[in-house]
Amino acid sequence: MYALVDPAGAILAVSLVGGGPLVGCGSVVLAGDEANPVILSLVLEPGTLPAGRAVAMPKTAWTTYESDRYLYRLDLPTTWKQKVQSDYDKYVGPDMRDFSVWGIPDVGTLGAFLKDQRARYLELYKLKPSSVTDMTVADQPAKLLTYKAPSTHFKYRTDSGALIVPSMYLVVFVHDGNGYGVQWFSPQADAKAGLKVLKQFLATFRFSY
Fold it and tell me: What are 99-142's pLDDT values in tens digits?
């Protein structure tokens, strides 16, 4: 970050370019008239910005995705893209990460829905969760299921065509009797970082009914 500062200490301009802060410490020279350009010169030397004059760095842009059929909203970085499938909403991001969201009406209790989803995953992937922990999504009690997929059992092809042995998480919760599932895939080496990102995304999840 570079900051241009006049001798009185007022920030004149900021250019967000990589590097440690350089602060203008020299004199300001103004010359010319209407017929000639005014020249502004500053001497930049290593230093620090005055207290209380920190300049905010730009943040990654986020956008809100909305599902009309499952009635929820979710905020994600713009580097993630929504790809609506026939029976679930899919979100594809960088680093071979993606996740899906689906809803099932009239599932009853969270306990009943959890039992049903565990049985479904056992049938589909021949996998049992290595752990089941409590969490909250949109102020609703939820269960986080962690699946460890041995390479001999399960591989996953990403949208980019890469074949990976994934870390897989399943989050289930119930709202007004309707069950929701969120399934996350990322490479096994990315398991801890991926879970952190998933929880960050789920913190923005809210119902639209």
Answer: 999 999 999 999 999 999 999 988 987 889 999 999 999 999 99
Interatomic CA distance for residues 155 and 151, integer angstroms: 6
Measured in degrees and rounded to the nearest 5, phi and psi for residue 4 equal -100, 125
Strand partners, 170: 145, 183
Tokens of 74: 């979710």
**Spans in the chain with pLDDT lower than 50:** 1-34, 37-42, 44, 49, 55, 57-58
Burial 108-131 (b: 16+ CB within 10 A, else e): eebeebbebbbeebeeeeebebee
- In whole angstroms, give the CA distance from residue 100 to residue 121: 14
Give CA–CA dist 67/135, Å, rounded: 23
Query: Tell me: the pLDDT tens digits for 149-165?
Result: 655 556 667 667 777 66
What is the structure's pLDDT at 76? Answer: 97
Q: Range(s) for CATH 3.40.1000.10 in the chain? A: 62-207
Assigned CATH topology for domain 62-207:
Protein Transport Mog1p; Chain A (3.40.1000)
134 contact partners, CB below 8 Å, separation of at least 6 = 141, 142, 143, 144
Locate 21 and state its tokens.
Answer: 């802060």
Q: How far apart are CA 123 and CA 117, in angstroms?
A: 10
> Collapsing DSSP states into helix, strand and coil, what is residue 99?
strand
